[in-house]
Amino acid sequence: MLDETLGDPQCPPEVRELKGRVADFVRARVVPCERVLDSGGPDAARTLYRLRQEAKEQGLWALPLPVELGGQGLGLRSYAHVAEAEGASDHGPAALGSASLLDALMLARHGSPRVRERYVAPLVAGELRASYAMTEQDAPGTDPFLTATRAAETEEGWRLTGDKWFVSGGDAADLVTVLARTDGQPPEREGLSLLLVPTASPGFRVVRELPVLGAAGQAEIALDGAAVDADHLIGERGKALAVAAERLQLGRTLRCLRWLGQAGRAFDLMRERAVTRSRSRGPLGDLQLVQRHIFESLLALRTTRPLVHEAVSRIDAGADAHVEVGLAKVAAARTLQLVADAAIQVHGAAGLGPDTALPALFRTGRAARILDGPDELHITSVARRVLRTERL
């Protein structure tokens, strides 16, 4: 995992040791537990709790979270290198305490004083789980103006009615931030707000699990008049998209870094197979077609990493990063799918079975081209901006 063949020449020396420690933790502690963690239920919860305690004991917990929120304050540019190692397993961010980064930052920046006091510290400590519900079944996920979920103002606060689906971790969350219409009608561009809904609220219901290509992790939820306190409005009324845009840019970039980590893991498996697998006429790696898989995969990894780090740099500087994030998202998703596919091909039938992580890595790569905005959305958005601004 994260073999030196891939390298990371931009990683500062002071971060390299930390990145190595995180890579070792994911490799030695998280990866062996993936099947249990994937299964859900009490065993998964106990295992995740144990891993989190170990991460805290080793000083690896909540690395990118601000110190004032209970984290370790590792800057975004430095954390970007660590995130690749952390994300080599889908469960790495949860085990190491960085999975709460987006929600904790959003609530700290845009939540009411009561929301900040009540929820932020437990989120950072791993005592609460949060999720984000934006997409609806009858509306394209890329068009929030068609949002039909409605929040009606009451004397006590808000009452939410509607349905959301493909809510990551929604079936196990304690809190769900919901995009809802507080004013106007679809497809009006104004009147969308974000509300924080405790899942214990009457009227909140998990409808079903939505497996993605057979894997758990997504949910459909229903809001049957769910009551929410007035101070659980996140940001200003009708200004949800400004908060969402802030969250989405960082979130997409973090996913890209984690996809790079998983692509690196697939590459390592492919390289090891090519070197150690023997045929009657010599090692598998002697075949030119296998060598081509190695070359194309390494080329994709080496050319994608700078795109992702360019997006990180612009976000960290507070600059417009729409073009960089769009390029990074499409490139990283393609790279993960390409490398995982090549590794499966080199493994043959073994790459399709349960003895390697390759089926899960390929599934993530294929889903990555749709989740967080389909490739087509990012391609057209970047092209329009370049055509309009002449920015390269």
TrEMBL record:
Q: Which cofactor does it need?
A: FAD
Q: What class of enzyme is it?
A: oxidoreductase
Which InterPro entries does UniProt cross-reference here? Acyl-CoA_dehydrogenase (IPR050741), Acyl-CoA_Oxase/DH_mid-dom (IPR006091), Acyl-CoA_Oxase/DH_mid-dom_sf (IPR046373), AcylCo_DH-like_C (IPR036250), AcylCo_DH/oxidase_C (IPR009075), AcylCoA_DH/ox_N (IPR013786), AcylCoA_DH/ox_N_sf (IPR037069), AcylCoA_DH/oxidase_NM_dom_sf (IPR009100)
- CDD domains assigned to the protein according to its UniProt record, in alphabetical order: ACAD
Q: Which residues form the signal peptide?
A: none
Q: Name one GO molecular function term.
A: oxidoreductase activity
Q: Which residues form the Acyl-CoA dehydrogenase/oxidase N-terminal domain?
A: 13-127
| Residue span(s) of domain Acyl-CoA dehydrogenase/oxidase C-terminal | 242-387
Q: Name one Pfam family in it.
A: Acyl-CoA_dh_N
Query: Do you know which SUPFAM superfamilies this protein is assigned to?
Result: Acyl-CoA dehydrogenase C-terminal domain-like (SSF47203), Acyl-CoA dehydrogenase NM domain-like (SSF56645)
Residue ranges annotated for the Acyl-CoA oxidase/dehydrogenase middle domain, each copy included: 132-218
Keywords per UniProt: FAD, Flavoprotein, Oxidoreductase
Tell me which PANTHER family the record gives. Answer: ACYL-COA DEHYDROGENASE FAMILY MEMBER 11, MEDIUM-CHAIN SPECIFIC ACYL-COA DEHYDROGENASE, MITOCHONDRIAL-RELATED
Query: How is this protein organized at the quaternary level?
Result: Homodimer.
Q: What is this protein called?
A: Acyl-CoA dehydrogenase family protein
Organism listed in the record: Streptomyces tendae
